Amino acid sequence: MPDYAVDRLVLVPDDVDLSRSPLAGQLDAETYVLGAFNPALTRLPGGNLVMFVRVAEALRQPVRDRHVHAIRWHDGGYVLDAWPLDRVDTVDPRQFVVHGQGWKVLGLTSLSWILPVELTADGLEVVAFHYDKAIAPQGSWQCYGIEDPRVSRVGERWLMTTCSVSPERHSTTLYSSDNGLDFTFEGIVLDHQNKDMLIFEGLIDGQYWAQTRPLGDLYFAYPPGSEWRAGPSINLATSPDSLHWKPHLQPGLRPHAATIATARMGGGAPPVLTPDGWLTLWHGVEPGGDVGIYRTYWSLLDRDDPARVIRSEHAPLLEANPALTVPIDHQIYLRDVVFTTGIADGGDHYVVASGEADLACRITHIPKSTFAMG
């Protein structure tokens, strides 16, 4: 990985004040910040940057009285559900598997909500925490939380996609804003399980474009000798209004058979337009350990036809940096994970926002020359 002049953590779990959380005072149990990570990033009209941070608020003792507990939004408040230990698998501290369902069914020991955190123009210092503008569950479709926001500015509007989690569905929800800070819920825009919907920062022939990543447990094999590997891929969709989306006929970015480091892949930061095409930062996952090794990669897409990939780099743009997390090493529960989720123009560089170790927010300044066609 290149050695960047600016690469640091700007927000860690202890920076979040849970007395101002949407859950504060509503549960008969102690909670803590399991992670403050995977931040969306955009620039405000006044010049400052703002991160929209996923705060995973977890139960300090999820297992008690021979039950494991889950937090759930219900009727405007929050409640705890108790599952008998003999019906679940609690190996993963973040979640538990419910047995005897006929397919994989999970429960969560945390609930995520979105905290806007305003930064200086260079993204390196916190200016303000906007707890009053937090985005929290507001319906049964997101009763288990709101995860991994991405923000794109398209014209004079800001569009935020989030992953909403519930037993009803694992959907993508959309929020919009006319100032980059106050967001209004617009509804569900993808009804199938989809973890990474990224709206392009600009229209193409009057249409909104987005990268999507539908998930499943069945993929069909490419022919022997193909340059592609079967598995999760980054697809494309278009919309006339940002609300109603149609899958694009041509595929987008697919895992390459030549490298195991991107055996699994998904979207990262919303695509931004450069002189050479649409720059997209995405994540590749190499199998190994508890969840795999997450790294950030990049590709350039044709400005008029984003299904046409101009260039993709096999070398990672970002990798997990253990030196950054030394001060919070006692809180780490995952390693080898960097998950890029935001990008903003910084002049001769891009300000890139990532989640580090599913724990903290990382800002990296990456020179624009890194992505030039040369």
TrEMBL record:
Keywords: Glycosidase, Glycosyltransferase, Hydrolase, Transferase
Keyword Transferase on entry: yes
Gene3D superfamilies: Glycosyl hydrolase domain, family 43 (2.115.10.20)
GO terms of molecular function: glycosyltransferase activity; hydrolase activity, acting on glycosyl bonds
Domain of life: Bacteria
Protein family (similarity comment): Belongs to the glycosyl hydrolase 130 family.
Full protein name: Glycosidase
InterPro entries: Glyco_hydro_beta-prop_sf, Mannoside_phosphorylase
Taxonomic classification: Bacteria, Pseudomonadati, Pseudomonadota, Alphaproteobacteria, Sphingomonadales
